[in-house]
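It is time I had a proper look at our fold encoding. Can you supply me with one protein entry, sequence and fold together? It will help me judge whether the discrete encoding reads sensibly. Leave the record below and I will have a look:
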Amino acid sequence: MRLTGSGAKVMRGAILLAGLLMVGPAQAQAPGTTPAPARQVAPPAASAGAAPAAAPALAAPAAAATPSLSPQQERMRACNAQAAEKKLAGNDRQAFMSGCLSGNANAAFKAEGEAKTACGTDKVVWANSDSQIFHAGGSQFFGKTAEGAFMCQATAAKAGYRAAGTRAN
């Protein structure tokens, strides 16, 4: 099938665009055209009696600078590294990341005693990572759901958990 008219122009444009994407603008050309001759720059004329100038050295490739990260990106990178160190996965990782990103790197604890030490005067709650509900000490679900961790109540609330018996907005 042979394209004519505007269909052929569109096809040539698409081929040119594909060439630009694959090889860059310096080497790409429209099909059926002759490449332009490369421009050559003559070296500057040497003055009489002066020693010929040394050829310019090739510039060393610039080191790839790492883009600066925003504070949020840095916190995400640090929290991911900590979660990997602790070998957390699934809901345990989710609970840890939620607390870590909210500013408390030790937000989720496997043992109630660790949480009590870390929380100080704040109440220790059991945060169910599946339902996003936290249970206070003494409740029937405190430390007993399949997924979850001990947390400080303020940290759990800040991470988006709600108290058991309350309705989500």
